[in-house]
Amino acid sequence: MNFFSCAYALLTAVFVKRFISTRWLHHSDLFTVNLLTAATAAAGAVGSVAMWGNKPSGWFAVCRLYRIYCDKGAVSLVLAFIAFAALGVSASLSRYPRAPPPDSTTK
Fold this sequence. Notes:
Pfam families: CASP_dom. It is a multi-pass membrane protein. The chain crosses the membrane at residues 32-53, 74-93. Homodimer and heterodimers. This is CASP-like protein. It is a single chain. With 107 residues, the chain is mostly helical. The chain has one domain (2-12, 24-95). The protein has helices at 2-14, 16-19, 24-52, 67-95. 6% of the residues are buried. The mean pLDDT is 81.
């Protein structure tokens, strides 16, 4: 999901001048932010089980055995939260741009 969010952000950054006059940019930004939020929450849940385990269901904590796995997972979660915050700011800026979109009806 992070790859697709990054690709979407790069594409909209490249073609922002063309897309600024359309209304769907804000909606697609919000959709991407929501997908990234869900993916980050799921990764956090998996990381929590890996770190602390879950005795009633029989899942044991694996971070004591595989420390490198948990360290890479923690870095990944931090980067995912940074991406979530950046896309959230981008979504709010796409809703309220600095300059009004060009009026296509007047020529």
